[in-house]
Design brief:
This protein has helices at about 1-15, 35-55, 65-75, 80-95, and strands at about 25, 35. It is mainly alpha-helical. It has a two-stranded antiparallel sheet with strand order 1-2.
């Protein structure tokens, strides 16, 4: 799973580099709350990456809600990036 984790972490870090360009407040369709656009973009990027890796492995896609749950588990932690990427790597490994 290390390789998967590293790939996903690299994608997340790349997306985090665009936060300064995504400072507008938008409605988060997942939660119904208003949040910064970068939150939505990063979640979508991770969902796309997870599902691309699952597709390559011949597995069915996961939902945005599955990725959101992993995001919530990482939220507030000093190692958010690692926790979110690791959680997404777990989703790739599911049957």
């Amino acid at each position: 799973m290390t390789t998967t984790f590293e790939k996903l972490k690299a994608i997340l870090v790349r997306e985090q580099g665009f936060r300064k360009d995504r400072k507008e407040w938008v409605k988060d369709e997942m939660t119904g709350h208003t949040t910064l656009a970068w939150v939505i973009y990063e979640r979508a990027a991770m969902c796309n990456a997870v599902n691309e890796l699952r597709h390559v492995a011949g597995k069915a896609p996961v939902s945005m809600r599955d990725v959101y749950r992993k995001e919530l588990q990482a939220e507030g932690h000093v190692d958010y990036t690692q926790k979110f990427a690791y959680g997404c790597a777990e989703l790739v490994e599911l049957p």
